[in-house]
Specification:
79 residues, mainly alpha, flat
Length: 79
């Protein structure tokens, strides 16, 4: 399977956001794209936790009714 980073997905994510009328939050795992670090299971969990904290603490307003958080075009999902 070829690696796909966020830069390669940017145009698709913009269209997805527009078509679904929603916000899209995307990030590269350690070791992919322009991210630093190595691809390791423990780093994957740390990346998921960091992304969740960013969404919860900095980006999501209190009026959000539903938040779907999952991996897209990846062999790993963030649930």
């Amino acid at each position: 399977m070829a690696q796909v980073d966020i830069g390669q997905m940017a145009a698709f994510l913009v269209v997805l956001s527009q078509e679904l009328n929603c916000s899209v939050f995307a990030y590269d795992y350690s070791g992919y794209g322009l991210s630093t670090g190595q691809l390791r299971e423990k780093n994957l969990y740390a990346d998921i936790e960091a992304a969740w904290r960013c969404l919860r603490d900095q980006l999501v307003s209190e009026t959000i009714d539903q938040l779907r958080f999952c991996g897209l075009c990846s062999s790993a999902s963030s649930f």
